[in-house]
Every structure is written in C-alpha cells, then in structure tokens.
Amino acid sequence: MNLLAVLKVALKALRVNKLRTALTMLGMIIGVAAVIAMLAVGSGAQARVREQLAGLGSNLMLVLPGSTTASGVRLGVGAAQTLTEEDALAIALEVPGVVVAAPSLRGAGQVVAGNSNWSTQYFGTTNDYLVARDWPLAAGRGFEPAEMSGSGKVALIGQTTAHQLFGDADPIDQTIRVRKVPLAVVGVLARKGQNAFGQDQDDVVLLPISTARNRVLGQAQGRLKRVNAISVKAAEGADMKRIEEDIRALLRQRQRVQPGADDPFTIRNLTEILQAQEAASRVLTLLLGAVASVSLLVGGIGIMNIMLVSVTERTREIGLRMAVGARARDILRQFLVEAITLSMLGGLVGIALGVAASFAVGHFAGWRTDITAESIALAVGFSAAVGVFFGFYPARKAARLLPIEALRYE
Fold first, then answer.
1. ∠152-154-157 over CA atoms, to 5°?
2. How far apart are CA 278 and CA 257, in angstroms?
3. pLDDT digits over 130-139, tens only?
4. Hey, is 106 helix, strand or coil?
C-alpha cells in the first residue's frame, strides 16, 4: 500500500469520530500556539535590548566624576568635578584599544526658536561624541575645528527637538536661543529612539564644548576645563575589561590617588549592562518556550491515549485486513500516519492561533512581539516529532496483532 492510499485510509478513520479527533488535536493546538506566542514575547524582548544596544553605541563606557561630601552629607556620583578635557585626551591617546574619548558638559533649560520654545537638555561636547555613540547626522554637518576652538555659535539638534521647534520645516541654518545665546543650527542628528531607561535620546541639543563652557553654561572653572562625563568608545573586539582597568589606572595616576584610596570617579560599562539584560532575555525566552512545550507533551500523551483506544476498537478490522493480505508494516504505517496527521493538523491550527495570540499580546499589552520563522518551524517540527514518538507504540501494538486472535476479539 503506497503512502497516498495510507493517508486516505487514515483521514477516513479520523473522520469517523470527528469530536474525538478534534478533542485529541486540542492538546497539540494549545501547545503549538503557546510555544509560538511565548517565543514571540521572548524574541521581542531580545530585539528591544538589541535596539537599545544599537541606540546606545557599541563598546561604550561612560566615565563619571566621583561623589563628594558636604557638611557630613555624601552626595551622589558626579557631584565632585574631578574630570577634565585633558583626561579625555589622555584616555584617547594612552589607552590601547580606545577609538575616541569625548568629554561633555551637561545643562538643561528652555530652547527658543522664533515663537516656539521647548524645554530640553543640551550637551557641550566634540564631534567624537557622535563617533562614540554611533550617531550619524540626518542632515547638515558637524562642528568645524574653528568652531570648536573659538566657541562658535552653532548647534546640532535631535529629531524630537527639531520637530518641537520647527515642525515640518527644515531646521538647517535656522537660529535657536539657549540661555539667550543665539546659535545657528548646522546639523540634525539621526533618530535614536529611547534608551534603556526610557528617555528620549532625540530630545537634545549639542554644542561645541567651548561654546557651552564660555557662552552658555558660564562655568567659572578657569583653565582646569572640568567636564561632567567622558564617553569612551573601544575598538571592535577589544577586551572591555582590560580597557576599563587601563582607564582606571591612568586616571588614578593623573589624579595622584594614593594606593588603597577610593577612586574619585566611576566607570560604567554600558554595553556590558545591556548585554547582561540581553542574556537575561534569552534565558527568559528559553524558559517560556520550555514551559509552553509542556503543553505539547500533554498533547502527545493525549494522542497516544486515543490511538491506543482506536487500536482496541479496530482490532477485528486489523485482523480482517491482515487475513486478506495486509502486512504488519502496512498496519504500522496506517496507525503511525494517523497519529502524525493528528499532530500536524493540530500544529497547523496552533500556528494560526499562536500568530493571532502574539498580535493580540502586542496590541493589548503593549509588548513587542517578534514572530520568527525559526519558532514556527520549531513548533511544527516538535508537533511532528510528538506524533511519531507517541504514535509509534500504538501502531506497533496494532501491527503485532496475530490475525486469528484479532478476528476472535469481541
């Protein structure tokens, strides 16, 4: 008996009791749908973390000033102004594996353009900041050397700030005012989106660090050129731990920190933090998939149970078929195809239900869900494997019946 004939016989046998067939398939439907939906939720979480990594910038470390104590009160990280532009230059030149080290000064307030105004944050920095953050320009240009050294009245603005101040108009060569200082917009930053903490990275204004120091922020720090942070980008494939230790050793030497004393600065490996989040998301995905797979196991047990009942009910039929010439392998193939058909039909319905459930979770819960071809292939392959595994024993039992005993079965 060829495979097509066996399939026709199997489908006919399954149609005899439609309700029992549907209930048997239900376990597979729920299992496959649960696997697809859970893997979609987990994949969405991983994709979100990868987007945050891309938005943050690859191989990025942030060097912040240390804390200080005033009247017995310990202030937080960044309270002590212990970093300078020279520190950033030293890191870029003396630490192997560092691509750029961009110093920055931070401020916040109202930015005015014509009759519009918007409260945002602004940073005084260098073009290296864009390199460190992997942040290209959507339009315009970066800062020129003369503007960096001469406190040029120019600015780069993010997409959110540009929209709030200029709407759909082109902001290039327009004038904005930051703390009453007029600045010409020479560039618009590409869209970054939210960072790992949910903050809009596109709501920003960048200025030359000399402009921020001398014209906008007015920090009276003399020739020390204090900065609020240094963004360090390491080369691709570099040992981030080693670079972090080299930076720590260099800054301790430059700031004459005594052995055993606490660091007057903090180094945060932001890439490492987000990679840990991605690893946690990956474990969550595997856990969700494993939990959902239990439903497939339960569905497989249901298939075995029904197939055993079917063998018992059709014992006389099996004996009759074997008496007129059917071979044991034909009987084995028939019942095995029935089990696989049950699992595959349940798998196909489960795919549709799982895709619908994934979209529903994304729509109503607001979670990101990513349905991948791998998750669908895994669910279908697992359902087929369940059909083979749990259908083999009943099929083998049917194939090993003796014709004379099967015909005498009451």
1. 150
2. 36
3. 998 889 999 9
4. strand
- How many beta carbons lie within 10 A of that of residue 279, not counting itself? 12
What are the structure tokens assigned to 274, written together? 């987000």
**17 phi/psi in degrees, rounded to 5:** -125, 85
How confident is the model over 237-279, as pLDDT tens digits?
788 889 989 999 999 999 888 888 888 888 888 666 666 666 7
Lookup: tokens for 331: 């009987």
pLDDT of residue 247: 93
Distance between CA atoms of residues 350 and 27, nearest Å: 9
Look-up of token digits 């997409």: 159
Query: Encoding tokens for residue 322?
Result: 């074997």
- Token couple for 208: 């030359």
Q: Are 162 and 187 in contact (CB under 8 A)?
A: no
Cβ atoms of residues 302 and 347 within 8 Å: no
E strand or H helix at 12:
helix 3-16
Amino acid letter, residue 14: L
Instruction: Decide if pLDDT at 231 tops 80.
Output: yes
DSSP of 262-318: PPSEEEEEHHHHHHHHHHHHHHHHHHHHHHHHHHHHHHHHHHHHHHHHHHHHTHHHH
Question: What pLDDT is stored for residue 386 in this prediction?
Answer: 74
CB atoms within 10 A of CB 84: 20
Provide DSSP, 221-232: -GGG-EESEEEE
Residue with tokens 């819960």: 365
Q: In Å, what is the CA distance from 72 to each residue of 67, 68, 82, 260?
A: 12, 10, 19, 22
**What is the chain's Cα-based Rg?**
34
Residue with tokens 């058909």: 341
> How many whole angstroms separate alpha carbon 363 and alpha carbon 292?
21
Q: Which helix (H) or strand (E) holds 197?
A: none
SS3 content of the chain, % helix, strand, coil (to 5): 55, 20, 25
405, 321 in Cβ contact below 8 A?
A: no
Show Cβ contacts of residue 342 under 8 Å, excluding neighbours closer than 6 positions: 14, 21, 24, 25, 28, 303, 306, 387, 391
Domain boundaries of the chain, sorted by first residue: 3-52+276-408, 81-263
One-letter amino acid at 34 equals A
Predicted TM-score (pTM) of the model is 0.61
